[in-house]
Amino acid sequence: GTIKIFGLDSRADSVEIHRRLAYIPGDLALYERFTPREILTHFAYLRGGIPWATITPIIAMVTPIFSPLKT
Question: Distance between CA 45 and CA 39 in Å, rounded?
Fold first, then answer.
């Protein structure tokens, strides 16, 4: 059988699939002084850059969750 993720073959395109995926555990505590925008921008840069059109909706989604910490 085959598995497709993002329309990509899991064996032939594994590097591209891993580039697109991210996992952040719920108990992760890092960069307390950074805003959600700064954290996402930082990790996007480390992953080779992600278009702002992709990052902006994610920032809008997570900012209310983290607003008690810092926005």
Answer: 10
Report how far residue 36's alpha carbon sits from residue 43's, in angstroms, rounded to the nearest whole number: 11
- How many C-beta atoms lie closer than 10 Å to residue 57's C-beta? 9
Model confidence pTM above 0.70: no
Cβ distance 41 to 51 under 8 Å? no
- Length of the chain, please? 71
- Alpha helices by DSSP H, listed for the chain, are 14-20, 36-46, 52-66
Burial (CB count <10 Å: 0-12, 13-18, 19+), residue 43:
middle
Using DSSP's 3-state secondary structure scheme, residue 9 falls into strand
Q: Tens of pLDDT along 34-43?
A: 777 787 788 7
Side chain identity, residue 23 = Y
